[in-house]
Amino acid sequence: MAHTPTSRQATDKHDGATTAIADNQPNAVELAMFHRLSKIIDPELGRSITDLGMITAIQATPRDAHPSTFDVTVHVELTVAGCPLSKTITSQINSAVESYPEATLIPHIEVSAMSQDKLADLVAQLKAERRQNPFTKPGVHTRIFAIASGKGGVGKSSVTANLAATFAALGYDTAAIDADIYGFSLPRLFGVHTQPTNLNGMLMPVVSWGVKLMSIGMFAGSERAILWRGPRLQRSLEQFLSDVWWGSPDVLLLDMAPGTGDMAISVAQTLPNAELVVVTTPQPSASEIAVRSGLVALQVPMKVRGVVENMSYFEHKDERLEIFGHGGGKRVSEQLTHALGYDVPLLAQLPLEPEIREIDDSGRPAVLDPSGKLADTPLAAQFTTLAQSLISSAQ
Ligand SMILES: Nc1ncnc2c1ncn2[C@@H]1O[C@H](COP(=O)(O)OP(=O)(O)OP(=O)(O)O)[C@@H](O)[C@H]1O
Ligand SMILES: [Mg+2]
User: Fold this and answer.
1) What ligand has the least distance to the C-alpha of 367?
2) CB contact at 8 A, 288 and 327
3) 81 phi and psi, to 5 degrees?
4) pLDDT at position 222, please?
5) pLDDT at 9 over 60
6) Comparing C-alpha atoms, which of 24, 40, 32, 41 is closest to residue 8?
7) CATH of domain 137-392
8) Is 366 touching ligand 1 by the criterion CB < 6 Å?
9) Which of 69, 76, 105, 131 suits 167 as a labelling partner, its CA being 20 to 30 A distant?
10) Which residues contact 20 (CB under 8 A, 6 or more apart)?
């Protein structure tokens, strides 16, 4: 007898668990299977596959010669045909069926795609559950760090990528956005060559090295890229946030465009909880303009969480060569502390490390080893300290 979740859910509402069927009858097996499958979470939407309506039928047929052996056919409707994560889901269904302790079950999984109407309903339901910008909801716990600088090329994107990879490797649910909608770096730094899955207009971030990523660079040349780069920066950022299914990350990092004004103001208006992290290099020319990028916090209610000095020194034969001079990070920290009236600490001094550039270009953040764990290097240790001081700082 085929078990369709809709009819079963309706029945359950009426007679609860009183379904009087002896153990290991096909019906009981189907019911038990439905229950087991409800534990499987869709990796993109973060919801149970049964809640999402992805299991449309379960059918258990006893094998004549073996009273406690059943062929179990599970019909799965994926949200998107050929969805890249379908293998993960089907293999989890397979193991849920095979590991049933009460009987021997032989799984047969029939995969198809949801109809356009059903998908539209599902997306509408999911969208209704959140506001436009999921990060401004009351009770949302996401720490948002905007990685900014005055001057270009000081290493914001490298710091964002390595910091995001560190947070993810430490077990935080981590997201990162290329907030620089005219120039973008994250797809290259994370080795992403795919486009986000599009569920009727709602986008799933691409997950790479454990980080949920979104970048306009993933849509190069497409209509969405043009739509998102609309006339106003703030509107673009809002759309960027609300068109994407983010779940509820612990940390969201924004890789900003260089500059001292517009972008930070847009971020502060769109994400009032965002905190600024100013990146500078040691030389005076970079640090002067870095101070100005932090002073934006005088105009908008945004905290400057701290300063990161990048390319501070080059370690050569146990000697630290200060190729780009000295003291930029400290100067920025002192001047912002003075101007803003609260402590803006120098959080890290990161070395000039050719590996950062080489590994970044190969699509793996330098703090990770090839297996995706934090590498056993001084650099990874420095990023771990930086991540911990950011997340443990008072908001
Ligand atoms: N600590 C470092 N050691 C060596 N190379 C680095 C380091 N930090 C960044 N780089 C390299 O410097 C270049 C500029 O870095 P990055 O793109 O991260 O800067 P950015 O501030 O994001 O630039 P933009 O302002 O253009 O967005 C890149 O080639 C990067 O690989
Ligand atoms: Mg950059």
Assistant:
1) 1
2) no
3) -60, 140
4) 64
5) no
6) 32
7) 3.40.50.300
8) no
9) 131
10) none
Architecture of domain 2-128: 2-Layer Sandwich (3.30)
CATH 3.40.50.300 maps onto the chain at 137-392
What is the DSSP-derived secondary structure letter of residue 365?
-
Q: Which tokens belong to 374?
A: 């934090």
pTM as predicted: 0.75
pLDDT in tens, 330-353: 999 999 999 999 999 999 999 998
pLDDT at 82 > cutoff 60: yes
Whether 178 is in the pocket of ligand 1, judged by its Cβ within 6 Å, is no
H helix or E strand, kind and range, residue 27: helix 26-37
Q: What is the mean pLDDT of the chain?
A: 85
**What is the model's pLDDT at position 263?**
80
Quote the CA–CA distance of 362 and 360 in Å, as a whole number. Answer: 5
Q: Which atom of ligand 1 is nearest to the CA of 360?
A: 31
**pLDDT for the residue 300:** 85
% pLDDT > 90, the chain? 45
